[in-house]
Amino acid sequence: MSVTPRVLLSIDYEPVFALFRWYDGLKDPARRREIDNGFTRQAIDPILEQLGDSRASIYLVGEIVEWYPEVPQKIVSAGHELGLHCHIHRPLGNVRELAEDLRASAAWCTVWCARLSRTHDRDQ
What we know:
Mean pLDDT: 83
Structural class: alpha/beta
Largest sheet: 3 strands, parallel
Number of strands: 3
Helix content: 40-55%
Low-confidence stretches: 116-124
Distance between the termini: 21 Å
CATH architecture: Alpha-Beta Barrel
Shape: globular
């Protein structure tokens, strides 16, 4: 018996400044969006085009959904699995910070059927 994977690629979709760790401490959401300057909104279309008929799991940083609500719609409409990477890209130092991230992204995760864990697949 051969196994056919449903998804072969996983993408962490983050604001461009996430590549530069010195922005991890930047707390002001307006300044973070200003630095992004529309990059994450503009970059999704060429990525989806390159994927073509291939399917991927795309894990969004939650603040992207706040800035550009059309991004998750584009991902889901293209047939990709959508998940939560984090709410604000930064190292999570403790359980409280993780819980805050999960709470902050819970609404869009519910709307877009994003999974917070893989246990859902096992339970069905």
